[in-house]
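Below is a concrete protein record.
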Amino acid sequence: MYGIAVSVAACLRAGTRVDVAWIVDPRDFAGFDPTDALAITPGGGRIGTLLSGALDGPLVDVASRNLSRGRLVEVEVGTVDALVAGLPSGGPALCLVVPAEEPGFLRAYAVAGGRVAASRRLPRHGGAAVEAGALVAEARGRAAGGPSYAPEAADELLLVAGFVRRPPPELTVLPLDAARLAAACAGVEPAAWVA
C-alpha cells in the first residue's frame, strides 16, 4: 500500500481522480502480500499490481465506472491468467476498490439499519460539524425505513465488521454522533463525553 502512496498523493494534488484497490480476502491464493495495492487512474493507467497482475484488468474495469464510493468485488482469476502471473492455480479473490481522497479530508462511513447507510468527506481540521451532521441525518433517515436485507448490504457489513473488530491505526470507530465525529476530525478528544 505504501509503495503507491506518493504516486496517489501526486495524482490528487494534480486534480486527477485515482482509485485504489487491494485484496481483502485472498481465498485460495496463499503467499500473497497484504501490503500490495493498485492505483488506477482514468483511462486505465496503473501503478502497482495485485497477484502479479492477475487481478489488475478486472479492477480497472470496476474503477472505470467512476463510482463515488468504494465497492467490494469478487474477481475470478482464470487458469490462463494464473499461469501468466506465475500463480499455481486460478480462483476467486475478494477485493476493495475505493476512490482516493485529497489530503486534508477524511472519508466517513455511517452504519445504520443493517447497511452502510451514508458516506461523506469530512475536513480534517475544523469545519467538519456541518458535514458530520449531514452524515448522521442521512444515515438515520435511511435507517428509519427499517433494516436492509439486500445482499449488497450484507457484503458491505461483512467487510466493515472485519475492520471494526480489529481496526488498523488509520481507522477510528465512533458512535453515530455528529459532535464526536467533528471532534475526531479536528483531532480533539475530550476528557469525557456527556450523553
